[in-house]
Amino acid sequence: MREQPVNQISEKGLRVWRLYGIMQTVLILLLAIGTGVLVYIFDGPWWIYAIAAGAVLLYAYLFIYLFPKIKWLRWRYEVRESEIELQYGIFIVKRTLIPMVRVQHVDTSQGPILRKYNLAGISISTAATNHMIPALVMEEADELRSRISTLARVAEDDV
Amino acid sequence: MMSNTRYKLHWVTAIISVLKTLKEMIIPLVVLVFANGLNDTGKWYLDYLTFIIFGLLIVTFLITGLIKWKRFVYWFEDEELRIEYGLFVKKKRYIPFDRIQSLDYTEGILHRPLNLVKVKVETAGGSASLKAEAELTAITKEEADRIEMEIAEAKKRRQSHLHTADEQPTELLEVEEKVQAKPVFSLAGKDLLILATTSGGIGLILSGAAIFVSQFADLLPLGWMYEEISGFIKYGFLLIALIIFLVLLVVWGISVAMTFFAYYGFTVMLENDDIVITRGLIEKKRATVPLNRVQSVRIVENPFRQLFGYANVVIDNAGGGLGEGAVINLFPLVKKKEIDGPLKEIFPDLITKDPSGKIPNRGKRHYYRIDYLWMLPAIAALTYFFFPYGLFSFLIIPVVVLFGLWQHRSAAYEIADNQLTLRFRRFSLQTAYMTKKRIQSIEMKQNYFHRKNSVATISARVKSGVGAFDAQVRHMEEKEAERILEWYEPSSSERKGEESGMV
Questions:
Q1: At how many degrees (to 10) do helices B227-263 and B189-198 cross?
Q2: Positive or negative, the Cα torsion across B434, B435, B439, B442?
Q3: Containing structural domain, residue A40
């Protein structure tokens, strides 16, 4: 069995994912309330309320609690001298290997929510593919970006 | 020796540009004509309004075409190909000779009587822009040769410059001197015909037949339901089916003819370090792919052709845009047994042995199990809504399972030196040969059932044009997938190198 990459995503990342989940759940809740109002007006059957409520609860459980947790537990990365290794995925665990010499550029990006938590995402591009580490502490992300770009500068192949 | 004379394109360029605009405008124009129709209002200018508009448009196109042609100039300066063009806004484009990867030639119908060519300049930075870096719509062949000469000379100058700087022997230069074009592959008469008749169009004809058959099947319940008008409906459906069938036949015929014309005289030559492909009867094309831009070699066997022992070989090109340039048909049709010779001539280091690593029996069921997810609800729904006939949908299960088993049996992989060979079937069987230094990233994927069964999917991506080609062998032995990851991992191979170095 191959060992996992060593580094984990910052714990604040988990909080951000939960926040995303809450925001989505609010949307679903609004939809459910809308449905409920319509059912009330048109005198629909009672079980529609039950389904709507159930859907909201299930969504909340999955997207606020379960999925972020699994996602966070699963996410691992490691930046070594000559390659980057990632492991992620909720249902399908993916392990990606990107040799340093293939890396063409590295970007960090930060939306308003990530900024509030002082986090940043880092995306690694090769000539053909894009890879993303979703939430790192800002300083760590910056440090990683510069480290990857110095390591990758050795690349010589014409692709 | 660097003269700054500015060259113009041939005047045919203006006509070509008009025709091109017309081609793009044809649908709105047709709509316009039909929408207006021919009505008699008594005023001639209203009756012929569409024609007047049409005429005016053509005149405008012609004038803009002429101006565009007049404005387009190119010249050589400072080791660069410089182009200046633009109708209202003057645009300049300077392309350093170093960056030019290849010149691709096309001779259309308008080019041929005047001995002209269209030249596409492909550069190394193909990833950013989708179009060719520059296009000279029509120049004489002598002019094309001059461009090629300028580029070659510039490269030579640079090289000799480098050599004197490095104080290296000029041996390399002399080798470069001999330009020899070695023919490697050509499509002979019979193969060309087979290619034309089996290319793509066959799918159309099959779907046509399927529609034809399905119409008959539908007739049975219909005839029973509408007894009175059944005769008429039957007749109507038959007619429609027949018309569709005929249309498809014609479309297929056209596609055969087009493939025939496009691949007529297909030859692959090796010129120094470039693969040069020429083809075409009416429109002659000549494309150049530098060998070091080739990212992977793939043998594709469509089941229909596989039956007759035929395959085709494509290469993924790092240059080129989205469409044509990215995946290049190296041998459009070739006997499977005869691939090795010409392929080895182009890529001497390629290991073309059949991959020997097979997928374990444990992986078998993963090839079709996931399909139950969509199959069972679909079957349930069909059975419920179309009760007696819906039961036929159960037949899909053996089809899907057999297809999965077929994919399982076809898949294979092999690591040999620096080359990874992955063989897999989507519908056609593909064997992708990729070297370590051309693979952009490798991914190993496992879902819950994979982990329980210790199997995994491996996916290797190579650059293909601006995108990527993803070669995937699914549900292979977990250990073997990890071995591929390890083979690919630079640090682990370095470690191995050190160990063997110490011994």
A1: 140
A2: positive
A3: 7-73
Q: What is the CA radius of gyration of chain A?
A: 21
Per the CB < 8 Å rule, is A128 touching B467? yes
- B268 or B47, higher pLDDT: B268
In a domain, A25, yes or no: yes
Give me the interface pTM, i.e. the ipTM: 0.85
Q: What is the pTM of this model?
A: 0.78
pLDDT tens sequence across B314-360: 999 887 654 566 888 899 999 999 999 999 999 999 998 889 999 99
Say if residue A53 is in the same domain as residue A87: no
Other residues' Cβ atoms within 10 Å of the Cβ of residue B496:
12
**pLDDT for position A81:** 85
One domain for residues A80 and A29: no
Count of all residues that appear for chain A in the document: 159
Inter-chain CB pairs, A–B, below 8 Å: 80
Minimum CA–CA partner of A88 in chain B: B445
Asked if residue A65 and residue A24 are part of one domain, the reply reads yes
Residues A108 and A88 in one domain: yes
Least CA distance to A124: which residue of chain B? B441
Q: What is the CATH number of the domain that holds A112?
A: 2.30.29.30
Tell me which chain A residues have a C-beta less than 8 angstroms from the C-beta of B127: 127
C-alpha angle A132/B425/B391, rounded to 5°?
A: 105
> In whole angstroms, what is the distance from residue B399 CA to residue A14 CA?
44
Taking phi first (over 0 means left), then psi (-120 to 50 degrees means alpha), and beta for anything else, what does residue B416 get?
beta
The answer to whether residue A159 is domain-embedded is no
Q: Which amino acid is at B270?
A: L
How many helices (H) and strands (E) are present in chain A, helices listed first?
5, 7
Chain A partners within 8 Å of B442 (Cβ): 96-97
Using N-to-C axis directions, what is the helix angle for B12-36 and B49-71, rounded to 10°? 160
Domain ranges of chain B: 7-178, 189-263, 267-359+411-502, 366-404
Instruction: Give yes or no for B78 touching A (CB within 8 A).
Output: no
Position of tokens 């390591």?
A151
Asked whether the beta carbons of residue A82 and residue B448 sit closer than 8 angstroms, the reply is no
Q: B69, B13 in Cβ contact below 8 A? A: yes
Domain boundary among A23, A44, A73: A73
Q: How many domains does chain A have?
A: 2
